[in-house]
């Protein structure tokens, strides 16, 4: 029997009068229970798969798999490409990231709307496009509505290979970006989801080497204070509809069967009612890598019992066998399939498209001029000015006659490392400079080196040095790529690859007016460049308009306002082993005792900002109260610009070790020359709490606290003490 999309809808509509689950007016829980009651055990098990087949007798459509949307929709055709997530975090602008995520999600829905579901043939859709599907009715890949983004694991170690996919080293900054991204992606309709987000990877997943079998050792306090707050924000505050567990184990228990994480914390403490999916292949790896079970049926059973619901491959057959062997009950299966169906109902899969608001998003928006403009804005806001001696930047086009553009990242497009789509037109740095200066300035180009070692490097260096000598200024674009950092590969060093470090020094010898622009995911230690060069910028992997954006910054058409979402250490000598998960031993800005090359939150501007009138009120608050922090910020320079006002706290009298400072508020503001604004932060005392392992709850104790406001974690402009007068306590 073949079903076209139109026939499916007509049949479903005709059945809705008799079937509760097909009636959009019914409460969702009643619809789910009705459908589950009509499914056979084998059909229930078949739905526990990300590519679940259609069940035609009940008008259940295929699930269509999952997709990625880290910084743009991954599809077979070009979509709008934004900065990678670490670049998004560098904007310190959650409102912008909400809009970016919403636009990405619009394109995801538009892709879905473009392709009708048909079986075994090609048919025109209502947009006149062709859609080819497989014989079992599954759409082409990239057509589902479940998206495995955002990645919100925290970068406790700068060597982690997937920092470009995440939001940095701080749980508060990460939580704000997570909430913005999830809300933007899922939409604001009270009934329907635009797309379903999947938070990754739950939890304590920030090491690639050995990730399939390693066990992260983390004590209870550090787990709740550092590794979980952003996940809680994504679930409790943003209402993410799904979450993915990890390959690794936590304190000896593989997370694909970790009841403490998935049931006790996620479901019971946080009230999560969506579905949990183990990372791809993680269920089988309970048997093959962790050696925790003897069979795939046992692996599936333990995963389901721990609180998982959906798997890429193994669940349908293995769960059916596990029930037959008595390892699972049918009630266990009902619980899992109900959670999966709840998300699918909220995506509108069982309702006529005419009543699902997101079904009306047209494919014409994909890769549109409006979307490209937002990509440019995001790229501009992400760029961080790290060093700018004697106001060397911005460059003056009227005084520059010749520019040398050099480096392995200067001409070749660097779109991203993993889960990256296609761009219809990608502006590389060289093109951005050429367009910026036009024919009035001579632009010379030499690659200079590869990302890593290359033959005939001396000849390449010589060519680059020659054009640098001819130029008024040399712009050197260097950094990292997937050969050095990516999923499955951690870095062994945190500086530039040696050949690029040598290239920079050769260019500086040829022309001291040399600017380095970094393209990277994880932090790059550049102490020599900071000491010697007049200017250094970080543009990360900035998306399709990155070349335009960095040219705007270099020539002063945009005043940079990005801030680092991580600490840039000097070398690996300042780091703990990657297997050390206790950040109190000197990791991140919160506990690092050395001097960084660039601190967390750092970023310069072409103007200056003055801070004054710090007020903390009340000066004495109860442990369950709230504190307000107000500060005046004035642009005291001659250019309009953005400042990121950062609020940190320190518990001065805690009975347990506390960070030197913790970020608890920030706001990116735009000020004209001479303009002043009062920035206000309002925080409940809960945000001052530490996790108490005795009560297994967050606790504030009476004592003195210090509020610190400034332009980075090291550039604190004003401080003020206040007092908490009584204890307070909150659940995990």
Overall description:
By secondary structure, the chain is an alpha/beta fold. It has three domains: 5-365, Glycoside hydrolase, family 3, N-terminal domain (TIM Barrel, Alpha-Beta Barrel), CATH 3.20.20.300; 383-591, Glycoside hydrolase family 3 C-terminal domain (Rossmann fold, 3-Layer(aba) Sandwich); 609-731, Immunoglobulins (Immunoglobulin-like, Sandwich). 29% of the residues lie in helices and 19% in strands. The chain has a six-stranded mixed β-sheet, sandwiched between helices. Strands 1-4-5-7-10 form a five-stranded parallel β-sheet. The chain has a five-stranded mixed β-sheet with strand order 18-26-25-20-21, with no helix packed on it. The chain is globular and about 75 Å long.
Q: What labels would you give this structure?
A:
single chain, 732 residues, alpha/beta, TIM Barrel, Rossmann fold, Immunoglobulin-like, 6-stranded mixed sheet, disordered N terminus
Question: In brief, what are we looking at here?
Answer:
Helix content is 29%, strand content 19%. The chain has 732 residues and is of the alpha/beta class. It has 3 domains: 5-365, Glycoside hydrolase, family 3, N-terminal domain (TIM Barrel, Alpha-Beta Barrel), CATH 3.20.20; 383-591, Glycoside hydrolase family 3 C-terminal domain (Rossmann fold), CATH 3.40.50.1700; 609-731, Immunoglobulin-like.
